[in-house]
Specification:
The complex is a heterodimer of chains A (88) and B (111). Chain A is α+β, with helices and mostly antiparallel strands. Chain A contains two helices and three strands. Chain A has a three-stranded mixed sheet. With 111 residues, chain B is α+β, with helices and mostly antiparallel strands. In chain B, helix 1 (3-14) packs across helix 3 and helix 2 packs parallel to helix 4 (84-92). Chain B is globular. The chains are: A alpha+beta (88), B alpha+beta (111).
Chain lengths: 88, 111
Amino acid sequence: MTLSDWITQMLQQSLQPTRLDVIDESEQHRGHGGFREGVQTHIRIHIVSDAFTGKSRLQRHRLVNETLAGAFDRGLHALAIDAKGPGE
Amino acid sequence: MTDARQAIESEIKSNDVVLFMKGTPQFPMCGFSGQVVQILGYLGVPYKGVNVLDDESIRQGIKEYSSWPTIPQLYVKGEFVGGCDITREMFQAGELQQLFVDNGIAVKQTA
């Protein structure tokens, strides 16, 4: 399973998103310090979930970070997050 | 309390705006840190840049300090504001400017 597959699975289970895009952007960071050949190091997430409704930006990001806490041990270096509630 | 935690608290207590980042405001070493540097520069807000690449204990310590896994991290008046995405979203919504004004920190007037 790739890291983005694992991230997708974790977010699906924990936050029941109505929309979820997990994009591996590692290749765009070739040459940068965090890049490692063959490893998914840079991931961008667009997620829409009821879980974010009424929550601040910090709370939303913390929810995603906590759900994906294990990802940084799996080689993740950078996580870009776009988290919205339905209809935002 | 560890030395790293003391050093972090000292920075965010003695400076109104602190950016823990990779590289320096003059030479950011990471695109995400660079985006926040650009935003703060655009707003003309004085801030202290702390280069976490200079000190591994700060680099790890700052992640634990705010339970936030990534860098950059922006602090205003001792409060954690967010990382690159949150700072950019707040800037685009005008909320970052308001946060500075509310804290008595002058923002450059822009057209």
